[in-house]
Structure formats: structure tokens, C-alpha cells
Specification:
Order of helices and strands: HEHEEEEEHEEHEHHHHHHHHHHHEE
Distance between the termini: 35 Å
Shape: globular
Strand content: 5-15%
Mean pLDDT: 91
Radius of gyration: 23 Å
Strand order of the largest sheet: 4-10-9-5-7-8
Number of helices: 15
Length: 496
């Protein structure tokens, strides 16, 4: 098939009708693997790893009994174990049953096996407590189909080389794999054009963005609105095209981006709402930009050559920019003229942040997501459940304040501590319904947000890596993230 930019929308959709196996939203193949319990228990020194489900769930004690809660999947139908081997390089045999050339997927790496028990002792350490708050999901990668197989790309771009992460992950660091599920009447050709555009923006972001030195609680999301995302996109294009002032702006503290900001939030919001075609680029970034943008999108591997375009990492020794070994295998391309911003294709949905495809979290969202996932309460309004949720909040207290940027040298203000204690007391009570609980604690959550001063222009906004599990196509979201499967090293699996 020729590039979508060279076809009419009708012709492209006709091709997908004749070739349904190439659709991005095609049915997923069944897993060819199951868990090898002995190998998994040995690798992670975790005797609880006995079933497929145990690889993606956590354990918490409620009312004197241990409960297994799905923290990395939405339901058991999401379970689909996929094998990887880093020595295969781009030829990931099992992964290539799911990924086709040019397709873009979201990967969220985690340390769940070996860290399944949600217990008080974990939270005594602020860093470990914060990691548990994120359900041990700690990094976002983009998995992309290329002509020779598939690669993983990261923010920072040096991640794979620094951490021996290879084309998937180290053996003891598995990942969840997600794809975009489009809502509404988005045709197969449009879906693939959007995915292509996300892939292309991912590479542009990889070229010039900088990773922050402190990303655990002290790097808020500056691009927390549609307007700010588009301003960031403009700086990315200007920097790649040679503007050193735009590059300096991107490298200022407020504009530095961590893995899930670049690989999820910005890649999706720019990729789905800023088509790289003449009309969109001219309208969003200036009529003078398209000629140069069009040229760079058609450069192929030459885009990554030393000195060709501005780059954060500098010249490499092989004629290409540093840490670009995987990136330069990824094709970039212009978007078709018929591709419109997704927010304009779904005008009936209430939009977050002026048009963002999903709403960033604040600290209250992060707390609520953790306690309602770790100890589901909806429909279980009992003393055992409400007490367990309250105790869990107390355990979380150091990690929560750490995520807000507070520390021993910068303690939280007394009114915030008092609000937190009131919140715990209210959570410990029983209510007529889950909605009644939400209404009861709303004043404390709102007041807490007003006390915490905005930092880095981000107004307390976050898109942590574990947010991937929460984007399910709610009313204020333009997409859902659908589980493709769970990536585990071939050595801890066995063929069915």
C-alpha cells in the first residue's frame, strides 16, 4: 500500500475493506504462552507467582483476609501474555504477531512481580511508597513497528543505552502493551493516519526534548491545556528546523519532559490533534512552516544524520546523532490532507483542557485512583473496607506529600496536614453509597488543591506512567487505551 498522504480517504478506506488484517483495530490474536511458575518465582523471589493473573495483580489485606486486586489490567479478558527476548533485536517473533510496520503502541514498564504485597512497611520509605502509589508502574516506552520488525523508543532517548533496555526490556522488568481505541465513527483509514501522525510526532519529540533531573514529584506538567500543548509543538518544530532559542526554551526547567509526558501525553495530544499536513501546520504553527516541515518529514534515515537538524544529544561516531540507533529505523511521514484534528472529528464530547484527548491528573486524582483500585469500595460499604481504605491513606501520607514536592527540609503546611487527617476520618466512615462518600470528601480534596501552590506553571498537573490503566474512554476523553497484552521475558513463560 502506498502512503496514506498520496491517497484519497475513499480509496484508503476501500483498501482497508479489502485488507481487514491491516486495520489498526483488528481483532487481537490469542496468547501462545502461559506462565512458567517455577521460573517466575525463581527470577523474582516471589512464591505468590502461580497463575497468569498473579503477574498483573497485587495483594492487600482487608478485614484479616488477603485480596487479589487487578491493578495492571481492567479485567481478566485483558490477560494476554506476549513473549520477548532482547537477543532477538528487532525480530521479536511473538510481539510481531501483534505489531505491524508503522504501527505505534504504548508500553508501560513495571516492577509488579516481587512487589505484589501492599503492606505498611513499604510506605515507610518515601520513594518506595511513591512507587507503590503508582502500582510499581515506572516507565513509558513507545513500541513501534519498523520494516525489519519492531523497536522501542524512550524519553530520554539515551534510556535504552543507559539501562541496557534493548528493544524491549531487561528480563526482570516486564511491560504492559496498549493501543489507541478510537471512539465514535473514525474510519479505518483515519485511524491509521492518526497512528502514523502519533508515530511521527513521537520522533520529533525525541529529537529535541530534555528529560528533567527530578521527575518524581518535582516536575509538574506544564502542558496542561490544549493551547500549551500546541505552543510546545511549535517550539519542537522550530527547534528541529534550527531555532536555538526554541531549543533553549524546550530545555528550560519548566519545559523538560519525563517519559510519560513525552511518550504518552504529548505524543497523543500532538499526534491526534495536530495533523502534520499543510492546512493544520499552517493554521497551528504558521503559514511559513509547511515547506520546511514537509521536507524534513520526507528525509527518511537522513533526518538523524550528524548536523542535519538540531538535536539535543549531539553528533554520534557512526555518522548519526547519539542514541538514535532505534529511532532512525522509524519512518516519518506527512499526514493526509483529509486528516482533521480528532477534537474536531468528535465535536459532541466535552473536551478536557480545551481539547486535550484526556485530562491530566492532579494529586487528588492520583490518591483516588490508588485507593479505589487497591481496595474497591463501590458496592462494598462495610466497616472492613472503609477501615482498610483509611489505613491505606495513612500509609500513603509520606509518599503523597513527597509527590507534592514536600520533604523534611520543605514540610507541608499545617492546614494541609489537618485536611489530610480530616479526609482519613471521613473515609473511615460508612455511607449510603459510593457517591455519598465522594460527595463527603469533595470539600477536603478541593481545599487541598487550593493550598498547594502551583509549580513549574503546571498547576499541580501530572501524567504519571500508571495513568495508562485509567484512560478508558470516559465522557471527557477522546480516546481509550486498550490492553493489547502483557510483555514477559520468554524465560518466565512456556508455550501453550
Amino acid at each position: 500500500m502506498s502512503r496514506l498522504a498520496d491517497q484519497t480517504l475513499a480509496a484508503a478506506n476501500a483498501w482497508y475493506t479489502q485488507n481487514p488484517q491491516a486495520r489498526y483495530d483488528r481483532p487481537l490474536p490469542a496468547s501462545a504462552y502461559t506462565i512458567n511458575p517455577t521460573a517466575a518465582q525463581t527470577l523474582w523471589k516471589d512464591p505468590t507467582l502461580k497463575t497468569e493473573r498473579s503477574l498483573v495483580t497485587k495483594l492487600i489485606e482487608v478485614g484479616g483476609k488477603w485480596e487479589e486486586v487487578p491493578t495492571h489490567i481492567h479485567s481478566d479478558k485483558d490477560l494476554r501474555l506476549i513473549a520477548y527476548q532482547n537477543v532477538w533485536k528487532t525480530k521479536q517473533r511473538d510481539l510481531l504477531r501483534f505489531i505491524q510496520p508503522g504501527e505505534w503502541y504504548l508500553g508501560s514498564s513495571h516492577h509488579n512481580p516481587g512487589n505484589r504485597h501492599i503492606v505498611q512497611s513499604v510506605f515507610h520509605n518515601e520513594e518506595k511508597g511513591l512507587e507503590m502509589l503508582k502500582f510499581s508502574i515506572t516507565h513509558v516506552r513507545n513500541y513501534i513497528g519498523v520494516a525489519s520488525g519492531m523497536v522501542a523508543t524512550d524519553s530520554p532517548r539515551s534510556y535504552a543505552n543507559q539501562h541496557s533496555a534493548g528493544h524491549v526490556n531487561p528480563k526482570d522488568y516486564p511491560a504492559l502493551l496498549w493501543r489507541i481505541r478510537f471512539l465514535g465513527d473514525i474510519s479505518p483509514a483515519e485511524q491509521r493516519a492518526y497512528v502514523n501522525n502519533v508515530r511521527t510526532w513521537s520522533m520529533l519529540l525525541q529529537k529535541v526534548t530534555k528529560f528533567p533531573p527530578d521527575y518524581n514529584g518535582n516536575d509538574n506538567l506544564m502542558t496542561n491545556s490544549y493551547a500549551k500543548v500546541m505552543e510546545f509543538g511549535s517550539n519542537v518544530l522550530n527547534a528541529v528546523l534550527g531555532s536555538r532559542s526554541a531549543l533553549a526554551t524546550l530545555h528550560s526547567q519548566a519545559e523538560q519532559v519525563y517519559c510519560s509526558e513525552a511518550g504518552m501525553h504529548l505524543a497523543l495530544n500532538l499526534g491526534l490533534n495536530a495533523p502534520l499536513n499543510q492546512a493544520s501546520v499552517s493554521a497551528l504553527f504558521g503559514a511559513d512552516k509547511w515547506a520546511n516541515v514537509s521536507t524534513l518529514l520526507n528525509e527518511g534515515e537522513a533526518f538523524w544524520r550528524n548536523g542535519k537538524y538540531l538535536d539535543y544529544y549531539g553528533n554520534g561516531t557512526d555518522g548519526f546523532m547519539q542514541n538514535a540507533e532505534q529511532n532512525r529505523l522509524v519512518e516519518m511521514e506527512p499526514a493526509p490532507a483529509w486528516l482533521a484534528a480528532l477534537k474536531d472529528r468528535l465535536p459532541g464530547r466535552p473536551l478536557a483542557g480545551g481539547g486535550l484527548v484526556f485530562r491530566p491528573w492532579d494529586v487528588a486524582d492520583m490518591i483516588e485512583h490508588f485507593i479505589k483500585t487497591a481496595i474497591p469500595r463501590n458496592g462494598r460499604e462495610t466497616w472492613e473496607v472503609s477501615n482498610a481504605q483509611a489505613e491505606l491513606l495513612l500509609w500513603l501520607k509520606p509518599g503523597i506529600f513527597h509527590s507534592m514536592g514536600f520533604s523534611r527540609s520543605n514540610p507541608p503546611p499545617p492546614p494541609l496536614v489537618m485536611l489530610f487527617d480530616t479526609l482519613v476520618a471521613k473515609v473511615r466512615r460508612n455511607y449510603e453509597s459510593y457517591a455519598a462518600l465522594r460527595a463527603a470528601i469533595a470539600p477536603e480534596l478541593q481545599a487541598a488543591q487550593q493550598i498547594v501552590a502551583p509549580k513549574a506553571l503546571g498547576a499541580g498537573a501530572f501524567v504519571p506512567p500508571h495513568m495508562v490503566t485509567s484512560i478508558t474512554g470516559d465522557a471527557d476523553e477522546l480516546i481509550a487505551l486498550e490492553a493489547v497484552g502483557q510483555l514477559f521475558h520468554e524465560d518466565v513463560l512456556k508455550a501453550k
